[in-house]
Each structure stands twice: as C-alpha cells, then as structure tokens.
Amino acid sequence: MGGYSTNTVGEDYEFTVKLHRYLLENDQDYQVKFLPEPVCWTEVPESLGALARQRKRWQRGAIETISKHWKMAVQPRYGRPGIIGMGSSIIIDIVSPVLEILGYFLVPVFWAFELLSTDFLLAFFALSVGTGIALSLASLILAELELSQNSTPKEIMSLGIVAIVENFGYRQLNAIWRLLGTWQHLRKHKGWDINKRVGFKKQPPTS
C-alpha cells in the first residue's frame, strides 16, 4: 500500500480509508475490527487556542483525505465503506459546517426582516439543539451499555450534563473552527501547527 501518505495532516484517517480502498480494489475478503477500550494515553490540548488549532488541523486532514478518495462515494464497487462511509464523510466534514454556520446567521436575519415566522425560528433552534443533545446522550448510553465501563452514577450524571451544555456555545465554536479549517485548506495551508506539550502530571497517591 505504500505506508502512510506524507501529504496529509490526517494520516491515521487517510491510512484507514486507503486500506479499505486497496482491499476492495484487489477483491480481498477482509474485516476491520474495532477495539473500543483505550490501550494508551494521549495528551489533550491545554488551552482554547490549542484546541482550536487541533480542530482546524483535523478539518484540513479530513478534507485532504476526502479529496484523495472521494470517488469511493460514487462507485458501487466500494460498497458500504465507499457509498455510506465516504458519502457521510463528505456530508459531515465538508457540507455540514458551512450549512450550520449559515443557518445560525441567516435564520435570525430572515426573522428580523420578517421573512420567517417566530414559530419557525424557535423550531429551527429547538431542532438544532435537540438533535445535538439526543446524539450526545445516545452515545453516552450506548457506551455504558456496550462497554461496561462501570461508571458511577455521579460520573454518568456529570457526562449527561456536559452532553446537554456543550450544545450551547461549544458546538457552535467547533463549527466555526471547522469552517476556518476549511478556509485554511482552500488557502493551501500546510503543517501541523504544533501545540506545546506540557507532559503528564503526577497524581497524588490514593488511599
């Protein structure tokens, strides 16, 4: 397969797609199995600026991968990984951020100029926020049922609250970062925009 591609910042995503494409093009019978339990630790962004740079880089990596393999979405030979997998990636990673930001901007403007009713305005935001909350809560419930993480009721409650609150500000911020990542891609921006690593902090001993 030639290993990792060197012209993308989303090499893990691109490698997975390339693996599917290679096996399907060579008529190989295969399975891809997913191990949901974490087997290593990684360092997360420590600041809002670092998080923004990470999300914009992820967006550029996704678009780079889609640009290289978009034909998988329109050719039946690639089956579910192509039509469903790549097709949904095109919608979620490329189309979705643009439509979401346009919706947040245009719907209130149309309402202000009385081109939309108040009922439609409220229904739009209720549907937008409600869908986000439902998906987050469903993911939380699925993880608890399928992975048997033995989370405490307090932990589940905290995650449930976060799943609701994230839709009021944080989700919109992510959409803006993704849109900026798309703009960076269009401007041929390359590189990782490396964030400062602070290392793992020692935890106090528990008793």
Write up this protein.
With 207 residues, the chain is mainly alpha-helical. The chain has one domain (11-186). Helices cover 63% and strands 0% of the residues. It is built from six helices and no strands. Helix 2 crosses helix 6. The radius of gyration is 20 Å and the shape is globular. The model has no long low-confidence stretch (mean pLDDT 88).
Strand content: under 5%
Count of alpha and pi helical runs: 6
Report, as a whole number of angstroms, the end-to-end distance: 51 Å
Number of domains: 1
Q: How many beta-strand elements?
A: 0
Query: What class do helices, strands and sheet pairing give?
Result: mainly alpha
SSE series: HHHHHH
Instruction: Report the average pLDDT across residues.
Output: 88
Catalogue the unreliable spans: none
Helix content estimate: 55-70%
Brief summary:
Helices cover 63% and strands 0% of the residues. The chain has 207 residues and is an all-alpha fold.
Note the topology:
Blueprint: H1 11-25, H2 48-69, H3 79-112, H4 118-147, H5 153-165, H6 170-186
Helix pairs in contact: 1-2, 2-3, 2-6, 3-4, 3-6, 4-5
Key features?
globular, 207 residues, mainly alpha
